[in-house]
Amino acid sequence: MSQRNPVVLVTGASSGIGYATALAFAERGARVVGVARREERLRELMERCRAHAPESFHLVGDLGERAVAEGVVDETLARCGRLDVLVNNAGVTKHKHVYHTSADEVERVMRVNFMSCVWTTFAAIPAMLRQGSGTIVNVSSFASKVVPPREPVYAASKAAMDAFTEGLWSELEGSGIHAGLVVVGPIDTEIWDKLEEPPAFRGRKYPPRVVTDAIFEVVAKRRYEVTAPRRNPQLALARLLRLLAPGLVRRGVRRMDPVPPELVEAARRRAEQGLRLGQGAARE
């Protein structure tokens, strides 16, 4: 970030990765704009950010709404005059078996996890073109590479972000704008407390700072894709097996969290009643 007092917009800034990232940018002198739905958390964050970057501020809104997603970029430009780094980190979890998931839930996840990234990016690119520079960092998940049990919807939203970002690598060539992808492994955030169904994962969870470090690497070194945590043997092996032995990965996932026969039969009974997926599941 060669720009003096660069302007950095971080979505999903009220906790976890977004909170740590916003604070880290402020500690380095950036004017931070934190965006999320929980204003109390954002106020606390801004108190800490302003100790290092007094011009930092927050914006409250639901990024699953297009007007809000575009509006936070417009408001940042109106108040700061420029936007140097956009970190698309906002996301919602969806850890439910497909038999228990409704189409409305899928749409909500896609709007927050993927479409908000598109809306903010499309709003930011014209300003970055006028500046002749800018960086867009999209925070994805390793679930998009190897899909865990009960995660098809969440993984699909992140896979869409991956493809979108990879497309930007060539689309933005020669513009002065850089787009990078941070692929996140198991991170110790409150998202684990929001899972609708118990997780099968029992491994180590890493602190949010490993993702923040990866984001800085994308910005400072113009990396295209960084995995966080770096050099994790389990993630590296999982990705390799996904390419070379996909059948082995499928068997491993099934053993990790097998589908109980009674769950299938309950779904079959609901189907025989004419119910769509997700309907009636909460009563069983």
Write the layout of secondary structure elements.
Layout: E1 7-11, H1 16-27, E2 31-36, H2 39-50, E3 57-60, H3 66-80, E4 85-88, H4 103-131, E5 134-141, H5 152-171, E6 177-184, H6 209-221, E7 225-228, H7 233-244, H8 246-256, H9 261-272
Parallel strand pairs: 1-2, 1-4, 2-3, 4-5, 5-6, 6-7
Helix pairs in contact: 1-2, 1-6, 3-4, 4-5, 7-8
Would you give an account of this structure?
It is a single chain. This protein has helices spanning 16-27, 39-50, 66-80, 103-131, 152-171, 209-221, 233-244, 246-256, 261-272; strands spanning 7-11, 31-36, 57-60, 85-88, 134-141, 177-184, 225-228. By secondary structure, the chain is of the alpha/beta class. Strands 3-2-1-4-5-6-7 form a seven-stranded parallel beta sheet, with helices on both faces. Helix 3 (66-80) runs parallel beside helix 4 (103-131).
